[in-house]
Amino acid sequence: MSVTSVDPRPTSAWLPGDDPGDRLFCQLGALDLEGGDRLPELQIAYETWGRLAPDGSNAVLIEHALTGDSHVVGEASPGHPSAGWWEGIVGPGAPIDTDRWFVVAPNVLGGCQGSTGPSSPAPDGEAWGGRFPQITVRDQVAAEVALADRLGIDRWAAVVGGSMGGMRALEWAVGHPERVARAVVLASTAYATAEQIGWSAPALMAIRTDGHFAGGDYYRQPVGPDAGLTIARQIAHVTYRSELELHDRFGRRPQSPLTDQGDGQFAIESYLAHHGAKLAGRFDANSYVVLTEAMNSHDIGRGRGGLRSALARFGGELTVVAVDSDRLYPPRLSEEIQAARPSTRLLTVTSRCGHDGFLTESDQVGAILAKALVPGAGRDLRQGAPGAV
Ligand SMILES: CC(=O)SCCNC(=O)CCNC(=O)[C@H](O)C(C)(C)COP(=O)(O)OP(=O)(O)OC[C@H]1O[C@@H](n2cnc3c(N)ncnc32)[C@H](O)[C@@H]1OP(=O)(O)O
Ligand SMILES: N[C@@H](CCO)C(=O)O
């Protein structure tokens, strides 16, 4: 897929809450990166819902996962080929009630849905492509700090995110504790594990060895590394679901009858082919690489004296939410955060869907978020406590 960068609206056109539910673009100047490089011009795309209170006290930041975007909820449209990825979670009367909260959802730095990433123009006017610098989760949060500054939001009432979004939510809490009242981290981790990095290795290899990858400089070619991205997504998608779910749903069932030539396809193969092709049709392979490597860089304890000391920097309310069947970000990683910071609330979502449970179990997730956003509601949120979710 060739990805074209969207022309920003005039920066004078944006105002917090001015265009609810529609994508806005903010030019934020240069960004110095953790690795020593500099992005000369940072653009962040974002959407908002609700109204910012005059004292700025009701702002909630929602952080999307690897292939998500700013479109948390809402219809599909030319700017958003898919409906929102967290339908039912944000809106008037919804768990994150926009009659009360002002919600901001940026597209992550390095992404391909409006924020600066490899498909954006470099200073020479050509897409960054393979020249795009390596970025970290801390860089992604630094970009969002610049956005918050521009929006006039000194402190988030809550920062909420799942998976890669949970990494950013935790990084916000630890890296900018004075600017976060509470954080909700779903299906995530304080650091990328060996297995997470391990699963990403063949996925990245599949993209980089695709003959159309061209070192990342494929935007002028008629065909990009779609095959590599398709394989990468297929590998990843298995890790996003549980072994039992895949067994129950697909078992050994053929998608189509086997012929004498034995060229039939298992249903699970067809399912993965579908998800792989669908991602290749909507996502940029370079962004997939850059974001995966950013996730691999994630370690909130790096340079901060380790996990316990990093978490001690955050004085706000921290809720971590594990999905019981998540094999990619298993519950032990949420438990580790809670053990290192005992005032952390640890909750569990029950799902057969594995890691994707933070997306599919919207009733449970919504109930958790509705309560987690109430100031001081922590006591009621303890697992098993009266009124707990
Ligand atoms: C914050 C973020 O993470 S944003 C990104 C989230 N969105 C995505 O990741 C998009 C990709 N989609 C997904 O990962 C998942 O669909 C989720 C998590 C969004 C939802 O999960 P579920 O509702 O359980 O969907 P499921 O995994 O069953 O997939 C359904 C799709 O598989 C297709 N499918 C199911 N069985 C088969 C099969 N045997 N052969 C081919 N296709 C199949 C369905 O037709 C359906 O297609 P569609 O999505 O194009 O309509
Ligand atoms: N389905 C999620 C999985 C990663 O959390 C995504 O594509 O972003």
UniProtKB/TrEMBL annotation:
Residues 58-361 form the AB hydrolase-1 domain. The keyword Transferase applies. Gene3D superfamilies: alpha/beta hydrolase. It is found in: Cytoplasm. Pathway: Amino-acid biosynthesis; L-methionine biosynthesis via de novo pathway; O-acetyl-L-homoserine from L-homoserine: step 1/1. One of its GO terms (cellular component) is cytoplasm. Belongs to the AB hydrolase superfamily. MetX family. NCBIfam families: homoserO_Ac_trn, PRK00175.1. This is Homoserine O-acetyltransferase. The gene is metXA.
